[in-house]
Amino acid sequence: MKRVQLFIDGAYTGAESGATFGLVNPATGEEVARVSEGGAPDVDRAAKAAKRALSGPWGQMSTMARLRLLRAVADRIDERRAEFLALEMRDTGKPVSFAGKVDIPRGAANFRIFADMAAGQHEEAFHQDTPDGRGAVHITSRQPVGVVGVICPWNLPLLLMTWKVGPALAAGNTVVVKPSEDTPSTATLLGEVMNEVGIPPGVYNVVHGFGPGSAGEAIVQHPAVDAITFTGESATGRAIMAACATDLKRVSFELGGKNPALVFADCDLDAAVAGTVRSAFSNCGQICLCTERIYVEKPVFAEFVRRLSLAAKALKPGDPSDPDTQMGPLISAVHRDKVASYLKLAVAEGATVQAGGHLAEVAGFPGGFWVQPTVWTGLDHSARTLREEIFGPVCHVMPFESEEEAIALANDTPYGLCAAVWTGDVARAHRVGGAIDAGMVWVNTWFLRDLRTPFGGMKASGIGREGGHYSTEFYTELKNLCIKL
Ligand code: NAD
Ligand code: 6OD
After folding, report:
1. 158 CB within 6 A, ligand 2
2. Which of 210, 224, 346, 463 has the largest CB neighbor count within 10 A?
3. What is the pLDDT of residues 27-38, one digit of tens each?
């Protein structure tokens, strides 16, 4: 795919302005495609097509027929797995060992599981006595919200987009998707899949472009868009929320994090080290759930730091298509420079570098945006390095002496997305897990997903929850019908 076009009303199209921008492969730094740069007129076309589709064949289709189509979308993603994988790896540089196991399978699962869950949707009925003795019946049901604007980041492009589009379509909505400008391709390929399986035109629309003054802002401001589901930075969430206030659009936000891991001396240290290597460095640290702050109980602190640092140094960067490659590049030169600025800042703030600490050079990929997996110790808790989301393969390890201190350190952050707790004591797991201000706490594991459970963050990490029936709540309006008998 050398030209990445918009997908509106079931057809590929350029932007009305004719504008395009370059798409860069982060592993090589080379431009690999031109992307149509949508703007307000293109969003207008997409939003109107999405509105029409609500009252067309899609809106009139039976629930079971709709869900059959969504299961067919999942099957087709599986069948075209190699194409989705190649595009996701090209856009992100992520290794096949990650994208093949996580991104693409979840792209299919997000349609299949939400279709299965929607099949179990039921209405509630309340019978009411009335003075005339005839009574009344109330029927409480759910109807689609309407046109949903889906605004996505670049770190797990297909996974995070379908995580919203799957339940939105299962509930009978239509969507206008704005993928990240850095990762437009898999959302575009999904348009072909929608047509192949017979999803009616206008149900799934994709408009590429940027945020402010571009396609993102136009989606948020369009009067035909009824709800916005957004994943990205907390600062962007604030701007979108302010814009949504005008039309009182409902919002669901999955935002940034500065996630802690708490390692207690009673844990299985091998598991804690292996789990923390995964939670700090997977996807080159570019997962909102990644651990950037690690607190370790004093008796095992030195040993934990030694083992984590050794493991970080052993992680193998390289050709994303090599199954042995463990580390990909960062998404862009801009993001590489941001992470590099924290590599400098951490040292200026007094960090001791236990592993990494520099940009990386990878044989055969001189133009890529590579950074060494980095482990720091020695920072004061007020350091900016410990307060700001970096979103790279970096983490800091600090000792603690008591459970209370560990909880206080974990909660000393504006964010509240997730935490990992490593302990062999179930009572402690329950106590500490309950005391951490985060939407999700994993004990003796990390990023173990069950799509029926609520996903989202507290504090500056988000508004609302998605997953299972929590998604249904966001993507539907409740209606009560009262019939006097
Ligand atoms: P970002 O906020 O810069 O951009 C996300 C999307 O919003 C992009 O499509 C962008 O074009 C668009 N956008 C930017 N400004 C906009 C505006 N004013 N109006 C409308 N759209 C706008 O985020 P990013 O850099 O792409 O992603 C990384 C961030 O996402 C990190 O902070 C990470 O923690 C967060 N994230 C959170 C979760 C979660 O589930 N909590 C998941 C993934 C990523
Ligand atoms: O697994 C998911 O459903 C999900 N929303 C993951 C988000 C990861 C953030 O980068």
Report:
1. no
2. 346
3. 999 999 999 999
